[in-house]
Write a sequence for this structure.
């Protein structure tokens, strides 16, 4: 039930909470999302802002936040435009996700169109027909 938010500058806990609330308010203004900041991840000596791990209490809110996260790129606030959200994945999930994204890129470079990653598979959807092109599942 965690998400990772990148792009929020390291500051006091109160300022970080204010920034997180601003992000949530931009994406889902009609809902008061209950969350807990779990802390920053990564090495302390990093010069860039380390990502924040946030626990979202309601899985539906988490799903909606992740689905609407792309809207931040078109926000009026310049700070919000630089923020990126992603699900908190295990190392194995990250590796599988990377393999899928690399394969998708390869297929698109070779001319495949209308393909995307859905539920751990690369699929083509044309005319309401769904065809699995690549899958990590055995």
């Amino acid at each position: 039930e965690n998400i990772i938010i990148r792009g929020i500058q390291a500051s006091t806990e109160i300022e970080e909470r204010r920034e997180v609330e601003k992000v949530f308010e931009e994406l889902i203004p009609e809902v008061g999302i209950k969350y807990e900041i779990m802390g920053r991840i990564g090495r302390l000596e990093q010069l860039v802002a380390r990502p924040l791990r946030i626990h979202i209490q309601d899985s539906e809110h988490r799903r909606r936040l992740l689905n609407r996260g792309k809207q931040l790129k078109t926000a009026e606030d310049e700070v919000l435009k630089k923020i990126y959200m992603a699900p908190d994945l295990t190392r194995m999930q990250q590796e599988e996700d990377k393999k899928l994204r690399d394969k998708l890129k390869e297929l698109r470079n070779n001319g495949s169109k209308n393909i995307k990653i859905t539920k751990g598979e690369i699929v083509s959807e044309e005319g309401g027909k769904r065809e699995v092109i690549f899958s990590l599942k055995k």
Q: What stands out?
A: The mean pLDDT is 87. DSSP finds four helices and seven strands in the chain.
